[in-house]
Amino acid sequence: MNILPLNNVNLQFNKKIKIFHSDGGGEFFNSKLTSHFHTPCIIHQISCPYTPEQTGIVERRHRIIRELGMTMLFHSGVPLFLWVEAFTTAVHLLNRLPSSTLNSETPYFKMHGSHQDYSSLCVFGSKCFPYTWDTRGHKFDPKTVLCVFIGYSTEHKGYKCYHPPSKKILVSHHVVFDETMFPYKPSTTIQPSSHTFKIFDIWIPHIA
Q1: 138 — pLDDT class (breaks 50, 70, 90)
Q2: CB atoms within 10 A of CB 52
Q3: pLDDT 10s digits, 106-129
Q4: Number of structural domains the chain divides into
Q5: In the chain, how long is the greatest CA-to-CA distance?
């Protein structure tokens, strides 16, 4: 289990963690995490056994992330072994959706004090062509390869593109997208019309 230094929260957001509430699962209730909380005097509260309602907000959020992630996988035809990428993308989107508990603001705005540029959002699982000039083995190699868009990099300001033949994930800021085509569903093409609205990665027909 990788644990980020707690002072990162203070440095990045000028906030201090006072209480950490979780269930009694082994990923939370262990000597490593306990010692991590001990130095800054963070109180670790644990819910009672077989009482998921004590962590109801987290349980509901987990369900929303799982359902959104699986929806994107089924919609795009992306294989299940890339489920982590789909769920990570689901979290990325949810953090940028308005929330009624935040007075219709987004979690991203509450954390950073600025709004996200929504023009950077793309359809999960769609066809994409990342710029691969710097990784070419020969000057006559192509400048790009056909990939599948699988999310956003947390370490870079760029997109994560999966290259099925090599099974590699390429990260690039310069990517050309074809959001109407899905490589894992070659017979599926979405043709937007004047009666169609695009909401993130799902085309929803407008019913008059």
Answers
A1: low
A2: 11
A3: 989 988 888 888 899 999 999 999
A4: 1
A5: 63
User: Is 63 inside any structural domain?
Assistant: no
Q: Which amino acid is at 94?
A: L
Q: Which residues make beta-bridge pairs with 110?
A: none
Say if 13 falls within a structural domain.
yes
Residue 71 in domain: no
Q: Give the residue numbers spanning the domain of 37.
A: 7-46
Cα–Cα dist 85/180, whole Å: 20
Answer whether residue 11 is part of any domain: yes
Q: Within 13 A of 105's CA, how many CA atoms are on the CB side? A: 11
CA distances from residue 41 to 9, 11, 17, 105, 185 in whole angstroms, order as listed: 15, 17, 9, 32, 52
Contacting residues for 139 by C-beta, under 8 A, at least 6 apart: none
Look at the pTM and tell me if it is higher than 0.85.
no
Q: Which of 157, 166, 82, 156 is nearest to 124 (CA)?
A: 82
Q: What is the DSSP string of 2-63?
A: ----THHHHHHHS----EEEE-S-TTTSSHHHHHHHHTTT-EEEEPPTT-GGGGHHHHHHHH
- What does pLDDT average to over the chain? 83
What percent of the chain has a predicted confidence (pLDDT) above 70? 82
Phi and psi, residue 105, nearest 5°: -85, 170
